[in-house]
C-alpha cells in the first residue's frame, strides 16, 4: 500500500508524463505540416513513449492500492520557429522531468518507501537515455548549421533512428 503523500506525488508525475506525450505530439504535428517527415516520425514515436511512461505509473499506483487520476492536460504550444527550437525545448523539458524524478526518489527515501524507490529506478535510467538522445540530436543540428542539404539528410536520418525503449 502506498501512502497518500507518495500517491499524490506519483499522480503529479502522471500529469507531467501525459503532458510530455502531448507536447511531443504537438511538435510532431508541426514538423509533419512543415514537411519534415523524419523528424515527425521521431517525435510521434517519442510521444508514444511518454504515454507508456504515464501508463506504467497508472498501473503501479493502482497495483499498490492507490487510485491513478487522469488529469486535464495543459495545452502545449502549437507553433515553433524551427527544428532547432524544438530540440532545445525537448532537452530542457527532459532535464525538468529528470529533476522531478530525482525529487520523487528523494521523497521515497524520506518516506521509507523502498518499493516505490525501486520502481522509480527504471525512470532514472530512462532519463539518462532521453537527455543523452536529445543532446546527440542537438550536436547534429550544430554541425549542420544553415546547410539545407544537411537538413535534408538530418530529417531522413531521424526518421530511421531507432527509439530508445
Ligand atoms: Fe521523457 O519523460 Fe518520461 O520519463
TrEMBL record:
It is found in: Cytoplasm. Keywords: Cytoplasm, Iron, Iron storage, Metal-binding, Oxidoreductase. CDD domains: Nonheme_Ferritin. May alleviate iron toxicity in the presence of oxygen. Residues 1-145 form the Ferritin-like diiron domain. This is Ferritin. Gene3D superfamilies: 1.20.1260.10. GO terms for molecular function: ferric iron binding; ferrous iron binding; identical protein binding; oxidoreductase activity. The lineage of its organism: Bacteria, Pseudomonadati, Bacteroidota, Chitinophagia, Chitinophagales. GO terms for cellular component: cytoplasm. One of its GO terms (biological process) is intracellular iron ion homeostasis. Its main location: cytoplasm. It catalyses: 4 Fe(2+) + O2 + 6 H2O = 4 iron(III) oxide-hydroxide + 12 H(+). Belongs to the ferritin family. Prokaryotic subfamily. It comes from Pseudobacter ginsenosidimutans. Fe cation binds at residues 17, 50, 53, 94, 127. Pfam families: Ferritin (PF00210). Its EC number is 1.16.3.2. It is an enzyme of class 1 (oxidoreductase).
